[in-house]
Amino acid sequence: MSFASTTVLKQEIEEFLYREAWLLDNYKVRDWLELLTDDIRYWIPTIESVFGETGSYREDVPYVPYVDDNRDLIEMRVIQLETGLRHSEIPVSVTQRIVTNILVDPAEREGEVKVHSNLQVTQVRHGDIETVWRARREDLLRSTNGQWKLAKRKVILLGSVIPRTLGIFL
Fold first, then answer.
1. Which of 14, 31, 86, 98 has the fewest Cβ atoms within 10 Å of its own Cβ atom?
2. Taking Cα atoms as reference points, which of 57, 92, 89 lies closest to residue 165?
């Protein structure tokens, strides 16, 4: 792949991630669903921490994840958010996402790319209760009908104890 095509690809991926952040920050979760493939896996594993040192996770160990959703479960969460049945999000949080350190690598299959990024989400509840989520993300994006779509997302939270109920998408 030439430098020019690599630069264009990176710009496309950055634009995808920034648009996704904007949609979520502006509570356009229904539009955000359009960015997901039908076979998406959205996964936030638990991270082991021993004596203050954050360990790692293993996909072959049966830890209970914070989130391990497919398309149907994500759509159910969106419906809960839209109808007020997502009790952890009443009233709806105000969020601001910052996506940084975006790296794009080839994936194993044609038309897919691996994307690594850092994420910080500031979440404000009830006007004054603030939580800051920090994470590394490992995404798999797939080109579908000329559009990039999110096929897999692994969110690796920094720290092993979450500060509050996780009712938002990271």
1. 98
2. 89
